[in-house]
Amino acid sequence: MxxxxxMNIQKLAETHGTPLVVYDENALRDKLTLFTKHFKSxxxxxxxxxxxxxxxxxxxxxxxxxxxxxxxxxxxxxLYTAFKAGYDCSKIFFHGNNKTPAxxxxxxxxxxxxxxxxxxxxxxxxxxxxxxxxxxVNVLLRVNPGIEAHTHEYIVTxxxxxxxxxxxxxxxxxxxxxxxxxxCDNITYEGLHAHIGSQIFDKKAFSELVRKMxxxxxxxxxxxxxxxxxxxxxxGFAALYTAEDHPIPIDEVCAEILHTCEEENQKIGNLIRxxxxxxxxxxxxxxGYNFYTVGYIKKTPNKLYAFVDGGMSDNIRPALYQAxxxxxxAGKENEAPYADYTIAGKCCExxxxxxxxxALPEVETGDILVMKTTGAYGYSMASHYNKLAxxxxxxxxxxxxxxxxxxxxxxxLISLEK
Length: 418
Ligand code: LLP
Fold this sequence. Notes:
The protein has helices at residues 9-16, 25-38, 58-66, 76-84, 101-110, 120-130, 171-182, 203-224, 250-267, 281-284, 317-321, 410-413; strands at residues 3-4, 7-8, 20-24, 45-51, 70-73, 92-94, 114-117, 137-144, 166-167, 187-193, 230-232, 274-277, 288-299, 304-308, 327-329, 339-344, 353-360, 368-372, 392-397, 400-405. By secondary structure, it is an alpha/beta fold. The protein has 2 domains: 39-282, TIM Barrel, CATH 3.20.20.10; 287-413, Lyase, Ornithine Decarboxylase, Chain A, domain 1. Helix 2 (25-38) packs parallel to helix 9, helix 6 (120-130) runs parallel beside helix 7 and helix 8 packs parallel to helix 9 (250-267). The protein starts with a strand and ends in a 5-residue tail after the last helix. The structure holds ligand LLP. Residues 51, 53-54, 72, 95, 155, 195, 198-199, 234-237, 278-282, 317, 321, 376-377, 381 line the site of ligand LLP.
């Protein structure tokens, strides 16, 4: 793999510098095609909503628009980027457990189509702001189905004490919130939302979610006369980081979800009209690569380190979630392994290890180390720790590269300082 998107890796590194984030644009397009093609049903309306927290920038949002997908944002910043990208805000789903009054106002001013209500106080804030105006908004209520998907504890989101959503066990609170929202003329209650976690490998977790959501929608109708016709199942579809990962193929997971939805909908008299999913990682993860230049090599009694010119500042996932990655040395793809290396970043933190142990051909100073599957939650969780400047982001396609985010300079780093 000396090329990505028809571009030579060393050339890209030379032209754009390292550390560098590179997206294979055709790989992004392929994932969007898969989701939009397979998340279709003869019986239900469907929407694919890209969870932009995985990677949010104007170029990415333009791609989302091109494929007719909706967009999930979780902050004023993500919303502003979408607005500036010229994205149709009526197709935006605004998430978050603590949207500030200013963010809610911004959403109403920008004409955001759907707000996902997370809790009772947020519902009251929305009602207060919108009443008496000529604005309109749809809402979904985030409920917490209490499903424990087997993933890292930091990215499990639907256990009973989660900070997100209202527990399905608290039906009374859910009913009160929906009734309050529905009593506002300019708020339309559309249905329920849940998200059970991220990097989920088990199809059964999704079908269990579907069953719980349909049963709950029916309960709300039968016991309380509340008719929501949309169910949004969130994201969480896994990506392949290393050979140990076996993500459910996109066509399969879409088929499984829709099949279960159709079955469950029949049981409840076809109450539900629309199903949404919110993939993030599974769209952008595998399309992304982080390039680093190898600096010094250091041998300790038990380790052989290769130091690189980035680290936890551009990819905090190994330090935060013990996430595993695969990597290779550009130009040495076909060479036999020479040793097991520990790939360490340059941040002042012992935990700044990008890969604990990986068999690589002999690594030399100046080599370009390419880490795979860095496209989700890499750049979007980057930091300025140690005042490292953020890398540039490049989209490559059919032998052409376009820089979609510039590399930060030292002047950018101090630009807000007085
Ligand atoms: N919808 C909602 C409401 C979410 O909270 C998330 C992710 C998604 C959709 C998209 O999930 P995905 O398809 O990307 O798994 N920073 C962590 C992941 C946090 C996920 C937060 N919510 C990581 O790097 O693994």
